Amino acid sequence: MSNSGTLPTDLDVLVVGAGLSGVNAAYHLAHSPLAPRFAVVDTHESFGGTWLIHKYPGVRTDTEAYTLGFSFKPWVGAPYADASAIQQYIGETIEEFQLTDNFFFGRQITDASWDPAAARWTVRGKHGAEEFSLTTKFLWMCHGYYRHEAGYTPEWPGFNSFKGQVIHPQNWPTDIDLAGKRVVVIGSGATMATLVPNIADECAHVTVLQRSPTYFFQSPNVEPLADQLRQYDTPEEWIHEIVRRKSVAEMQSLVQIQQLHPEISKSTLIAMVAKQLPEGYDVERHFTPRHLPQDQRVCRILNGDLFAKISEGKVSMVTEEIKTFTEDGIETLDGVSIPADVVITATGFNLSVLGDVNFSVAGEDVNFANSVTYRGMLFTNLPNLAWTFGALRLSWTMRADLVSQYVCGLLEHMDAVGASTVVPELRPVDGSMALQPFVDPKQFNPGYLLRAEHLMPKAGAHAPWQMSMDFWAEREEFVDETFDDGCLKFR
């Protein structure tokens, strides 16, 4: 999909990012009674974000597509969908709701400057070799949360001495041939778990090298309730909403159990894995994490595929620290030598703080680490700017939908009170409030957040100056939002 039209130079709202968050925002803007002039720009050649750029074998969602999908468009495929199916769903959404003319691709935003006198953002960027600029009353960052151009690769001793091929899944080459190759996959998360079963049969052997294990949950790729409802010719809109509610309720129960009974949750998950592996397999070493289940996401294994490849002898697990790379492989601190023709670094990604755009306000450069977040959406000292940061304990889109409704409600409130500017400001009661990381590491501490903590906006010690990890409480809070808590200053 491409838009050959001309990007408007003066807008009410500019949305940056054409993935799930940006399309969600576009839908809500298009259905707002304000009928704002808006555009969605993306640096890539098409829509989809994550689901456009990730091409590695087996790439799929780790959460149910009934919740990863939109509240306003039913999902009718397998509950855990591959990238192409999600990409198709996003494209259908854009066309079905007649949003095509609002999307402009190949536009990379580089700078955004706020002019207090004009109450406008001036946004600059590149479209191929050409530069462009536009003004907008409101700037809405929907770029997701990680840098698309390159994934995270640690610095290992001897890395440059390795003579084989190194691949990061985020930049998967289309011409790679793994047939008969000895492959080492470094990493322990969802990318590893989806990639390895899909390459194991063609490789001579796959070794998974992990520093520490991850929790896994095994399930088939089916949604029995949806299948049952379809037998009775239930409308797809009803099925979507019913399954969506069920999934959200189940996740809420799971999170509560993990928090109230962490050791029971831990032992249950590990026992589930042990049942999938041969008798005597060293589950203690390779599948017993150091952290508790609520500290990071639990990865999903579909139909036991990873465990099946381990049981067949096609995949080996090595849980060790890397000592050094060699010309033909890797040596661990415990003296294990792992030969390799190809090394795949499934080691995560780098957080993108507000799209890595250079922001300035009244001529002064903005350092987001000096701002405090308001509900994980708005930021002190930054007028008319929102960031869609989705849910971390369930599908990203669930919170993105809340944020979209909130931001559109905020724009409607601004119109009703005649305000051209909104900015969060700490109240006197917040003056002595202790500041903490954007996401409390005691609640959630994956590597990508810890690595970027010094770049992220701060959070406060109490609401509303926090990025909420409790989707269920936040959903209730937003039902009767009046925007009059004294934190938002309208001018």
Question: If you had to describe this structure to a student in words, what would you say it looks like?
Answer:
The chain has 491 residues and is an alpha/beta fold. It has two domains: 10-149 and 350-490, FAD/NAD(P)-binding domain (3-Layer(bba) Sandwich), CATH 3.50.50; 159-345, FAD/NAD(P)-binding domain (3-Layer(bba) Sandwich). It is built from 13 helices and 23 strands. Strands 1, 2, 3, 4, 5, 6, 17, 18 and 21 form a nine-stranded mixed beta sheet that branches. Strands 7-16-8-9-12 form a five-stranded parallel beta sheet. It has a three-stranded antiparallel beta sheet with strand order 13-14-15, with no helix packed on it. The two termini are 39 Å apart.
Task: Write a concise keyword list for the protein shown above.
491 residues, alpha/beta, FAD/NAD(P)-binding domain, 2 domains, five-stranded parallel β-sheet, 13 helices, globular
What's the layout of helices and strands?
Blueprint: E1 10-16, H1 20-30, E2 38-42, H2 50-53, H3 65-68, H4 83-96, E3 103-105, E4 107-115, E5 120-127, E6 130-141, E7 165-167, E8 182-186, H5 190-199, E9 205-210, E10 216-219, H6 224-231, H7 236-260, H8 262-274, H9 283-286, E11 299-302, H10 305-311, E12 315-319, E13 322-326, E14 329-332, E15 337-339, E16 342-345, E17 358-361, E18 364-365, E19 373-374, E20 378-379, E21 385-387, H11 396-417, E22 422-424, H12 447-451, H13 471-477, E23 488-490
Parallel strand pairs: 1-2, 1-6, 2-3, 4-17, 6-21, 7-16, 8-9, 8-16, 9-12, 10-11
Antiparallel strand pairs: 4-5, 5-6, 13-14, 14-15, 17-18, 19-20, 22-23
Helix pairs in contact: 1-11, 5-10, 6-7, 7-8
